[in-house]
Amino acid sequence: MRAAQKVLGIDVGATTVKFAALNGERLEYRGVQKIASAGNAAFIAQLAAIIAAPEFQDCARVGIGSPGPLDIERGVVIASANMPAVRDCELIPELKKLFPQKDIRLDNDANAATLGEKFFGAGRGHENFAVFTLGTGVGGGCVYENRLYRGFKGNFFEVGHIPVFAAAPESRLCGCGNRGCLEAYASATGVSASYKVQSGDVLTAADIAARAHAGDGAAQSAYSGAGEALGLAAATITQLMNITEFIFTGGMAAAAALLRPALEEAYRAHTFALFHPLAKFTFTEGDENAGIYGAAALFL
Ligand SMILES: [Zn+2]
Predict the structure, then answer these.
(1) 114 within 8 A of 146, measured Cβ to Cβ
(2) 3-class SS string, 203-263
(3) Domain spans of the chain?
(4) DSSP code of 179?
């Protein structure tokens, strides 16, 4: 592959920015930095310094995946839960001023992850599938009839805010301000909250998974609650769109064995039987570079 076709992929995560040049299917000059989250200017300057680095001079195209909400038409980061000081950040317009010769694109991290699965991961060759990113929050994206849908300003398929338990008497408050959202139960934060309710202990989702495997009932219940919530959300998607293939990625995907039984039970209980033989749930932790591949895939 010619050097001119290299793409710089930048994955803006919860606490770090990861980046690398994608050369064919290979990543080169991979780097990780702590996010400069002091404000819009610091954040823009950090990404500009990465783009300007000598090793990326031959990357004419730059893909950036970032948590939202975003306005991808204007290239603006409207807000970010992990970077409260970054608001209405005119990221792409500012970067274009600095690098007028480069093609720079922004999309939300879940859309980027979905494209990453389509071109490099479990979604290869699949025309219809949904991706759930299970991390500190729950994001999502879908490829339908071989196409990624972006919706209004890039905010399509926000599965994390499907109200799966809104009707429950003690439905939990979500970061978005509503109650009963999938994210409040099936994210790492949600599992921690479920475990705290039952045991009084505050632990990370990974520690709770270890306890669940060791036989702790409250830990198992925190994960089965997350699985049930995921199954209800997946069932909603199947009934609406007839998508029956689901890919779960992110740190929480490591807990597949704890999530799957309740997920499949809730899914089957809330979908037509004709879909059951088609249903496929793939858990992939991906690798730590999945976000970089996804950001670079914005050009594929
Ligand atoms: Zn919500």
Answers:
(1) no
(2) CCHHHHHHHHHCCCHHHHHHHHHHHHHHHHHHHHHHHHHCCCEEEEECHHHHHHHHHHHHH
(3) 3-112+289-299, 124-283
(4) B
Tokens of 166: 């809104």
Least confident range from 69-83, 89-103, 105-119: namely 69-83
User: pTM of the full predicted structure?
Assistant: 0.89
Q: Which CATH number fits domain 124-283: 3.40.50.300, 2.30.300.10, 3.30.420.40, 3.40.190.10?
A: 3.30.420.40
Cis peptide before 69 (omega within 30 of 0): yes
β partners of residue 26: 23
Q: Quick check: 118 and 131 in contact, CB under 8 A?
A: no
The rounded distance, in Å, linking the Cα atoms of 173 and 157 is 20
CATH number corresponding to 3-112+289-299:
3.30.420.40
Which residues are placed with Cβ below 5 angstroms of ligand 1, an ion? 161, 174, 176, 178, 181
Q: Exposure pattern of 14-36 as b/e (b: 16+ CB <10 Å)? A: eeebbbbbbbeeebeeeeeeebb
Domain 3-112+289-299 shares a fold with domain 124-283 = yes
- How do residues 187-220 score in pLDDT, each as one tens digit? 999 999 999 999 999 999 999 999 999 999 999 9
CA of 94 to the centre of ligand 1 (A): 30
Q: Report residue 107: phi and psi, to 5°.
A: -145, 165
Ligand 1 center–CA 159 separation, angstroms: 9
Q: Ligand 1: distance of its center to the CA of 176 in Å?
A: 4
Determine the Cα–Cα distance for residues 266 and 161; give it in Å rounded to an integer. Answer: 18
